[in-house]
Amino acid sequence: MSKYKLGLEYAKEQDQNDELSHYRNQFHIPKNKHGHELIYMTGNSLGLQPKSTKSYINQELEDWAKLGVEGHLEAKNPWLPYHEFLTESMANVVGAKPIEVIVMNTLTANLHFMMVSFYKPTKTRYKILIESDAFPSDKYAVESQLRHHGIDDKEGLILWKPRKNEELLRYEDLEAILETQGDEIALIMIGGVNYYTGQYFDLKRITELGHKNNCIVGFDCAHGAGNVELNLHDSGADFAVWCTYKYLNSGPGSLAGAFVHERHAYDKNLNRFTGWWSHNKQTRFNMRDEFDVLPGAEGWQLSNPPILSMAAIKASLDMFNEVGINKLNDKSKKLTGYFEFLLKQLGEDTIKIITPNNSEERGCQLSIQVKNANKNLHNKLTEAGVISDWREPDVIRCAPVPFYNSFQDVYNLVEKLKAILNE
Ligand SMILES: *Cc1c(COP(=O)(O)O)cnc(C)c1O
After folding, report:
1. Which domains are delineated in the chain?
2. Which of 152, 239, 253, 385 has the smallest C-beta neighbourhood within 10 Å, fewest atoms?
Protein backbone atom coordinates (compact mmCIF):
# COMPACT_ATOMS: atom_id res chain seq x y z
CA MET A 1 0.00 0.00 0.00
CA SER A 2 1.20 3.45 -0.84
CA LYS A 3 1.90 5.90 1.92
CA TYR A 4 0.10 8.54 -0.15
CA LYS A 5 -3.61 8.96 -0.78
CA LEU A 6 -5.74 10.31 -3.60
CA GLY A 7 -8.00 13.33 -3.39
CA LEU A 8 -7.78 17.01 -2.59
CA GLU A 9 -8.51 16.49 1.11
CA TYR A 10 -5.29 14.53 1.50
CA ALA A 11 -3.27 17.30 -0.18
CA LYS A 12 -4.82 19.89 2.12
CA GLU A 13 -4.09 17.76 5.14
CA GLN A 14 -0.45 17.37 4.10
CA ASP A 15 -0.10 21.13 3.72
CA GLN A 16 -1.60 21.63 7.17
CA ASN A 17 0.85 19.18 8.70
CA ASP A 18 3.84 20.57 6.82
CA GLU A 19 6.07 22.46 9.23
CA LEU A 20 7.63 24.38 6.32
CA SER A 21 4.34 25.43 4.70
CA HIS A 22 4.56 29.00 6.03
CA TYR A 23 7.68 29.63 3.94
CA ARG A 24 5.53 29.82 0.80
CA ASN A 25 4.29 33.12 2.14
CA GLN A 26 7.83 34.46 2.24
CA PHE A 27 8.12 34.25 -1.56
CA HIS A 28 6.49 36.19 -4.35
CA ILE A 29 4.34 33.64 -6.22
CA PRO A 30 3.76 34.76 -9.84
CA LYS A 31 0.11 35.40 -10.76
CA ASN A 32 -1.93 35.30 -13.94
CA LYS A 33 -3.59 38.41 -15.33
CA HIS A 34 -6.65 37.85 -13.15
CA GLY A 35 -4.51 37.87 -10.03
CA HIS A 36 -4.63 34.09 -9.40
CA GLU A 37 -1.45 32.39 -8.27
CA LEU A 38 0.15 30.25 -10.95
CA ILE A 39 1.36 26.72 -10.28
CA TYR A 40 5.05 27.44 -10.49
CA MET A 41 7.06 24.29 -11.25
CA THR A 42 10.22 25.83 -12.70
CA GLY A 43 12.27 26.58 -9.62
CA ASN A 44 14.89 24.36 -11.30
CA SER A 45 15.24 27.05 -13.94
CA LEU A 46 14.65 30.29 -12.05
CA GLY A 47 13.89 30.16 -8.34
CA LEU A 48 11.25 32.53 -6.99
CA GLN A 49 12.05 35.80 -5.28
CA PRO A 50 12.07 35.85 -1.48
CA LYS A 51 10.08 38.82 -0.21
CA SER A 52 13.10 39.80 1.87
CA THR A 53 15.39 40.22 -1.14
CA LYS A 54 14.27 43.76 -1.84
CA SER A 55 15.25 45.04 1.61
CA TYR A 56 18.67 43.34 1.42
CA ILE A 57 19.37 45.08 -1.89
CA ASN A 58 17.89 48.35 -0.67
CA GLN A 59 20.24 48.34 2.28
CA GLU A 60 23.21 48.37 -0.10
CA LEU A 61 21.63 50.98 -2.38
CA GLU A 62 21.05 53.23 0.61
CA ASP A 63 24.56 52.77 1.96
CA TRP A 64 25.99 53.50 -1.48
CA ALA A 65 23.84 56.68 -1.70
CA LYS A 66 24.82 57.76 1.80
CA LEU A 67 28.45 56.75 1.90
CA GLY A 68 29.86 56.46 -1.60
CA VAL A 69 33.25 54.80 -1.53
CA GLU A 70 33.29 54.77 2.27
CA GLY A 71 30.72 51.99 2.08
CA HIS A 72 33.57 49.54 1.50
CA LEU A 73 34.34 49.89 5.20
CA GLU A 74 31.43 51.83 6.69
CA ALA A 75 28.35 50.19 5.18
CA LYS A 76 26.20 48.22 7.59
CA ASN A 77 27.51 45.15 5.78
CA PRO A 78 30.93 46.43 4.64
CA TRP A 79 31.49 45.69 0.95
CA LEU A 80 35.17 44.87 1.29
CA PRO A 81 34.55 41.56 3.07
CA TYR A 82 30.95 41.16 1.80
CA HIS A 83 31.58 37.80 0.11
CA GLU A 84 32.71 36.42 3.46
CA PHE A 85 29.17 36.92 4.83
CA LEU A 86 27.99 34.29 2.36
CA THR A 87 30.68 31.69 2.84
CA GLU A 88 29.48 29.79 5.86
CA SER A 89 25.85 29.49 4.82
CA MET A 90 26.81 28.55 1.28
CA ALA A 91 29.19 25.92 2.68
CA ASN A 92 26.30 24.51 4.74
CA VAL A 93 24.03 24.32 1.71
CA VAL A 94 26.53 22.32 -0.38
CA GLY A 95 28.05 20.32 2.48
CA ALA A 96 31.51 21.85 2.39
CA LYS A 97 33.96 23.51 4.75
CA PRO A 98 34.06 27.32 4.59
CA ILE A 99 37.60 27.28 3.19
CA GLU A 100 36.34 25.22 0.24
CA VAL A 101 33.65 27.62 -0.96
CA ILE A 102 33.53 30.94 -2.78
CA VAL A 103 30.76 32.95 -4.44
CA MET A 104 32.07 34.62 -7.59
CA ASN A 105 31.55 35.15 -11.33
CA THR A 106 28.94 33.16 -13.19
CA LEU A 107 28.64 29.41 -13.57
CA THR A 108 30.23 28.75 -16.94
CA ALA A 109 32.99 31.23 -16.13
CA ASN A 110 33.72 29.34 -12.91
CA LEU A 111 33.81 26.06 -14.80
CA HIS A 112 36.49 27.53 -17.05
CA PHE A 113 38.49 28.89 -14.13
CA MET A 114 38.39 25.51 -12.43
CA MET A 115 39.52 23.79 -15.62
CA VAL A 116 42.41 26.24 -15.94
CA SER A 117 43.64 24.85 -12.62
CA PHE A 118 42.51 21.25 -12.76
CA TYR A 119 42.56 20.22 -16.41
CA LYS A 120 46.21 19.64 -17.08
CA PRO A 121 46.51 17.48 -20.18
CA THR A 122 49.70 15.59 -20.96
CA LYS A 123 50.69 13.79 -24.17
CA THR A 124 49.10 10.55 -23.03
CA ARG A 125 46.48 11.68 -20.52
CA TYR A 126 44.43 14.47 -22.07
CA LYS A 127 40.81 13.38 -22.49
CA ILE A 128 37.75 14.75 -20.72
CA LEU A 129 34.80 12.57 -19.82
CA ILE A 130 31.31 14.07 -19.55
CA GLU A 131 27.78 12.65 -19.61
CA SER A 132 26.33 12.43 -23.12
CA ASP A 133 23.42 14.75 -22.41
CA ALA A 134 25.40 17.25 -20.39
CA PHE A 135 24.00 20.77 -20.26
CA PRO A 136 25.02 22.46 -23.52
CA SER A 137 27.07 25.19 -21.83
CA ASP A 138 29.16 22.56 -20.02
CA LYS A 139 29.77 20.69 -23.25
CA TYR A 140 30.79 23.85 -25.08
CA ALA A 141 33.06 24.87 -22.23
CA VAL A 142 34.78 21.50 -22.11
CA GLU A 143 35.21 21.36 -25.89
CA SER A 144 36.72 24.81 -25.94
CA GLN A 145 39.18 23.82 -23.20
CA LEU A 146 40.27 20.89 -25.33
CA ARG A 147 40.79 23.16 -28.34
CA HIS A 148 42.57 25.70 -26.15
CA HIS A 149 45.15 23.03 -25.39
CA GLY A 150 45.46 22.14 -29.09
CA ILE A 151 43.45 18.93 -28.76
CA ASP A 152 40.81 17.90 -31.27
CA ASP A 153 37.50 18.32 -29.45
CA LYS A 154 35.99 15.14 -30.91
CA GLU A 155 39.04 13.02 -30.24
CA GLY A 156 39.47 14.39 -26.74
CA LEU A 157 35.89 14.06 -25.54
CA ILE A 158 34.56 10.82 -24.05
CA LEU A 159 30.82 10.50 -23.52
CA TRP A 160 29.19 8.44 -20.79
CA LYS A 161 26.02 7.38 -22.58
CA PRO A 162 22.78 5.70 -21.57
CA ARG A 163 22.18 2.29 -23.12
CA LYS A 164 19.86 1.90 -26.07
CA ASN A 165 16.23 2.62 -25.10
CA GLU A 166 17.34 3.88 -21.69
CA GLU A 167 17.58 7.39 -20.33
CA LEU A 168 19.56 7.00 -17.13
CA LEU A 169 23.28 6.43 -16.85
CA ARG A 170 24.69 3.26 -15.30
CA TYR A 171 27.78 3.13 -13.13
CA GLU A 172 28.85 -0.18 -14.69
CA ASP A 173 29.22 1.66 -17.98
CA LEU A 174 31.36 4.35 -16.39
CA GLU A 175 33.50 1.62 -14.82
CA ALA A 176 33.88 -0.02 -18.22
CA ILE A 177 35.02 3.26 -19.81
CA LEU A 178 37.56 3.78 -17.05
CA GLU A 179 38.81 0.24 -17.35
CA THR A 180 39.66 0.66 -21.02
CA GLN A 181 40.49 4.38 -21.22
CA GLY A 182 41.17 5.39 -17.62
CA ASP A 183 44.81 6.23 -18.27
CA GLU A 184 43.90 8.61 -21.10
CA ILE A 185 41.38 10.60 -19.07
CA ALA A 186 42.66 13.76 -17.39
CA LEU A 187 39.32 15.06 -16.17
CA ILE A 188 35.89 13.68 -15.35
CA MET A 189 33.30 16.49 -15.31
CA ILE A 190 29.72 15.44 -14.62
CA GLY A 191 26.53 17.36 -13.89
CA GLY A 192 25.87 16.34 -10.25
CA VAL A 193 22.14 16.23 -10.94
CA ASN A 194 21.47 15.86 -14.64
CA TYR A 195 19.41 18.79 -15.85
CA TYR A 196 17.34 16.69 -18.26
CA THR A 197 16.62 13.42 -16.47
CA GLY A 198 16.96 14.70 -12.91
CA GLN A 199 19.29 11.78 -12.12
CA TYR A 200 21.31 12.60 -9.00
CA PHE A 201 24.63 10.85 -9.27
CA ASP A 202 26.59 9.29 -6.46
CA LEU A 203 29.30 11.93 -6.38
CA LYS A 204 31.46 9.97 -3.98
CA ARG A 205 31.32 6.82 -6.07
CA ILE A 206 32.23 8.68 -9.26
CA THR A 207 35.04 10.52 -7.48
CA GLU A 208 36.49 7.32 -6.06
CA LEU A 209 36.35 5.66 -9.45
CA GLY A 210 38.04 8.65 -11.03
CA HIS A 211 40.73 9.00 -8.40
CA LYS A 212 41.50 5.28 -8.57
CA ASN A 213 42.36 5.95 -12.20
CA ASN A 214 44.30 9.13 -11.36
CA CYS A 215 41.74 11.38 -13.01
CA ILE A 216 40.72 14.77 -11.62
CA VAL A 217 37.00 14.82 -10.82
CA GLY A 218 34.76 17.90 -10.93
CA PHE A 219 31.00 18.41 -10.85
CA ASP A 220 28.60 20.98 -12.17
CA CYS A 221 26.02 21.17 -9.40
CA ALA A 222 23.71 23.77 -10.97
CA HIS A 223 20.77 21.41 -10.43
CA GLY A 224 22.04 20.12 -7.11
CA ALA A 225 22.81 23.20 -5.03
CA GLY A 226 19.82 24.00 -2.82
CA ASN A 227 18.04 20.90 -4.14
CA VAL A 228 19.84 17.87 -2.68
CA GLU A 229 22.36 17.32 0.10
CA LEU A 230 25.52 17.39 -1.97
CA ASN A 231 28.06 16.69 0.79
CA LEU A 232 30.76 18.04 -1.48
CA HIS A 233 33.56 17.72 1.05
CA ASP A 234 32.84 14.06 1.79
CA SER A 235 32.43 13.29 -1.90
CA GLY A 236 36.14 14.01 -2.25
CA ALA A 237 35.61 15.81 -5.57
CA ASP A 238 38.47 18.08 -6.59
CA PHE A 239 36.19 20.92 -7.61
CA ALA A 240 32.55 21.83 -8.17
CA VAL A 241 30.64 24.80 -9.55
CA TRP A 242 26.99 25.86 -9.40
CA CYS A 243 24.72 28.80 -10.03
CA THR A 244 22.49 30.56 -7.50
CA TYR A 245 19.49 31.50 -9.63
CA LYS A 246 17.92 28.03 -9.79
CA TYR A 247 17.17 26.35 -6.46
CA LEU A 248 19.09 29.04 -4.60
CA ASN A 249 16.53 31.75 -5.44
CA SER A 250 19.04 34.56 -5.91
CA GLY A 251 17.71 36.19 -9.05
CA PRO A 252 18.30 35.98 -12.81
CA GLY A 253 21.98 35.71 -13.74
CA SER A 254 23.11 36.10 -10.15
CA LEU A 255 26.64 35.18 -9.09
CA ALA A 256 27.73 31.55 -8.96
CA GLY A 257 29.53 29.31 -6.50
CA ALA A 258 32.72 27.29 -6.65
CA PHE A 259 34.15 24.56 -4.44
CA VAL A 260 37.77 23.53 -4.28
CA HIS A 261 38.49 20.59 -2.01
CA GLU A 262 40.48 21.31 1.13
CA ARG A 263 43.31 19.10 -0.06
CA HIS A 264 44.13 21.78 -2.66
CA ALA A 265 43.61 24.74 -0.30
CA TYR A 266 47.26 25.50 0.44
CA ASP A 267 48.79 24.44 -2.85
CA LYS A 268 50.33 27.68 -4.07
CA ASN A 269 51.78 25.96 -7.09
CA LEU A 270 48.42 25.11 -8.53
CA ASN A 271 48.22 27.15 -11.72
CA ARG A 272 45.31 29.55 -11.95
CA PHE A 273 44.15 32.82 -13.46
CA THR A 274 44.37 35.50 -10.80
CA GLY A 275 43.43 39.08 -9.96
CA TRP A 276 43.78 41.37 -6.98
CA TRP A 277 40.92 39.64 -5.14
CA SER A 278 42.88 36.37 -5.08
CA HIS A 279 45.74 38.19 -3.34
CA ASN A 280 46.49 38.25 0.39
CA LYS A 281 43.99 40.58 2.11
CA GLN A 282 46.61 42.13 4.41
CA THR A 283 48.70 43.47 1.55
CA ARG A 284 46.07 43.77 -1.19
CA PHE A 285 45.94 47.55 -1.01
CA ASN A 286 49.68 48.08 -0.99
CA MET A 287 49.13 47.60 -4.70
CA ARG A 288 52.75 46.87 -5.48
CA ASP A 289 53.42 43.62 -3.73
CA GLU A 290 54.37 40.46 -5.45
CA PHE A 291 51.38 38.21 -5.87
CA ASP A 292 50.59 36.22 -2.75
CA VAL A 293 47.66 33.88 -3.25
CA LEU A 294 44.93 33.46 -0.62
CA PRO A 295 44.41 29.93 0.70
CA GLY A 296 41.29 27.99 -0.21
CA ALA A 297 38.60 28.75 -2.76
CA GLU A 298 38.96 32.49 -2.10
CA GLY A 299 42.25 32.27 -3.97
CA TRP A 300 40.31 31.89 -7.22
CA GLN A 301 38.52 35.25 -7.04
CA LEU A 302 39.55 37.89 -9.53
CA SER A 303 37.60 41.05 -8.93
CA ASN A 304 35.84 42.99 -6.25
CA PRO A 305 32.36 41.49 -6.58
CA PRO A 306 28.93 42.97 -7.44
CA ILE A 307 27.42 43.70 -4.03
CA LEU A 308 23.82 44.05 -5.27
CA SER A 309 23.85 40.51 -6.59
CA MET A 310 25.49 39.27 -3.40
CA ALA A 311 22.80 40.97 -1.34
CA ALA A 312 20.19 38.86 -3.14
CA ILE A 313 22.25 35.75 -2.45
CA LYS A 314 22.54 36.70 1.21
CA ALA A 315 18.77 37.12 1.49
CA SER A 316 18.27 33.64 0.12
CA LEU A 317 21.05 31.94 2.07
CA ASP A 318 19.77 33.42 5.32
CA MET A 319 16.52 31.55 4.65
CA PHE A 320 18.34 28.32 3.81
CA ASN A 321 20.35 28.69 6.97
CA GLU A 322 17.24 29.20 9.05
CA VAL A 323 15.55 26.03 7.78
CA GLY A 324 18.52 23.81 6.98
CA ILE A 325 18.99 21.87 3.77
CA ASN A 326 18.19 18.58 5.53
CA LYS A 327 14.65 19.68 6.47
CA LEU A 328 14.05 20.97 2.97
CA ASN A 329 15.28 17.66 1.68
CA ASP A 330 12.85 15.73 3.88
CA LYS A 331 9.93 17.71 2.53
CA SER A 332 11.30 17.44 -0.98
CA LYS A 333 11.24 13.66 -0.79
CA LYS A 334 7.64 13.61 0.44
CA LEU A 335 6.42 16.16 -2.08
CA THR A 336 8.18 14.52 -5.02
CA GLY A 337 7.07 11.06 -3.92
CA TYR A 338 3.48 12.33 -3.79
CA PHE A 339 3.87 13.86 -7.26
CA GLU A 340 5.15 10.55 -8.59
CA PHE A 341 2.27 8.68 -6.92
CA LEU A 342 -0.34 10.92 -8.56
CA LEU A 343 1.32 10.76 -11.98
CA LYS A 344 1.32 6.98 -11.85
CA GLN A 345 -2.49 7.05 -11.53
CA LEU A 346 -2.60 8.48 -15.05
CA GLY A 347 -1.42 5.14 -16.38
CA GLU A 348 2.08 4.01 -17.18
CA ASP A 349 1.25 3.67 -20.87
CA THR A 350 0.42 7.41 -21.03
CA ILE A 351 3.09 8.77 -18.74
CA LYS A 352 6.62 7.64 -18.29
CA ILE A 353 8.77 9.21 -15.61
CA ILE A 354 12.37 9.29 -16.77
CA THR A 355 13.75 10.44 -13.42
CA PRO A 356 14.95 7.64 -11.10
CA ASN A 357 12.21 6.34 -8.80
CA ASN A 358 14.65 5.93 -5.92
CA SER A 359 14.41 9.10 -3.83
CA GLU A 360 18.15 8.91 -3.07
CA GLU A 361 18.90 9.25 -6.78
CA ARG A 362 16.92 12.39 -7.50
CA GLY A 363 16.04 15.80 -6.15
CA CYS A 364 12.62 17.40 -6.50
CA GLN A 365 12.48 17.39 -10.29
CA LEU A 366 10.50 14.82 -12.25
CA SER A 367 11.01 14.62 -16.01
CA ILE A 368 7.82 13.32 -17.52
CA GLN A 369 7.58 11.77 -20.95
CA VAL A 370 4.05 11.89 -22.29
CA LYS A 371 3.06 9.45 -24.99
CA ASN A 372 2.33 11.11 -28.36
CA ALA A 373 2.74 14.54 -26.82
CA ASN A 374 4.01 17.60 -28.58
CA LYS A 375 4.59 21.19 -27.58
CA ASN A 376 0.83 21.72 -27.74
CA LEU A 377 0.42 19.89 -24.45
CA HIS A 378 2.87 22.24 -22.82
CA ASN A 379 1.03 25.25 -24.26
CA LYS A 380 -2.25 23.99 -22.84
CA LEU A 381 -0.67 23.50 -19.44
CA THR A 382 0.60 27.05 -19.57
CA GLU A 383 -2.88 28.30 -20.47
CA ALA A 384 -4.21 26.37 -17.51
CA GLY A 385 -1.84 28.27 -15.22
CA VAL A 386 0.98 25.76 -14.88
CA ILE A 387 4.51 27.04 -15.41
CA SER A 388 6.59 24.02 -16.43
CA ASP A 389 9.47 23.40 -18.76
CA TRP A 390 9.29 21.69 -22.13
CA ARG A 391 12.24 19.83 -23.67
CA GLU A 392 12.01 18.49 -27.19
CA PRO A 393 10.87 16.02 -28.29
CA ASP A 394 8.37 15.04 -25.56
CA VAL A 395 9.54 15.78 -22.02
CA ILE A 396 7.99 18.07 -19.43
CA ARG A 397 10.18 18.91 -16.48
CA CYS A 398 8.43 19.88 -13.26
CA ALA A 399 10.13 20.71 -9.97
CA PRO A 400 7.95 20.99 -6.87
CA VAL A 401 10.30 23.05 -4.73
CA PRO A 402 9.95 22.32 -0.99
CA PHE A 403 10.55 25.96 -0.03
CA TYR A 404 7.44 27.33 -1.77
CA ASN A 405 5.48 24.60 -3.53
CA SER A 406 2.63 22.90 -1.71
CA PHE A 407 0.97 19.50 -1.87
CA GLN A 408 -2.05 21.31 -3.31
CA ASP A 409 0.15 22.72 -6.10
CA VAL A 410 1.12 19.18 -6.99
CA TYR A 411 -2.46 17.94 -6.75
CA ASN A 412 -3.79 20.77 -8.93
CA LEU A 413 -1.04 20.29 -11.48
CA VAL A 414 -1.84 16.62 -11.95
CA GLU A 415 -5.59 17.35 -12.14
CA LYS A 416 -4.95 19.86 -14.91
CA LEU A 417 -2.69 17.48 -16.76
CA LYS A 418 -5.32 14.76 -16.48
CA ALA A 419 -8.03 17.07 -17.83
CA ILE A 420 -5.89 18.03 -20.83
CA LEU A 421 -4.99 14.40 -21.59
CA ASN A 422 -8.67 13.39 -21.41
CA GLU A 423 -9.82 16.09 -23.84
C1 LIG B 1 21.81 26.30 -15.67
C2 LIG B 1 23.03 25.60 -16.08
C3 LIG B 1 24.08 26.29 -16.75
C4 LIG B 1 23.96 27.74 -17.12
O5 LIG B 1 25.21 28.36 -17.12
P6 LIG B 1 25.38 29.93 -16.88
O7 LIG B 1 26.83 30.14 -17.00
O8 LIG B 1 24.84 30.24 -15.52
O9 LIG B 1 24.59 30.63 -17.94
C10 LIG B 1 25.22 25.56 -17.05
N11 LIG B 1 25.35 24.25 -16.73
C12 LIG B 1 24.36 23.57 -16.09
C13 LIG B 1 24.53 22.13 -15.74
C14 LIG B 1 23.18 24.22 -15.76
O15 LIG B 1 22.19 23.55 -15.14
Report:
1. 8-49+326-421 (3.90.1150.10), 81-322 (3.40.640.10)
2. 152
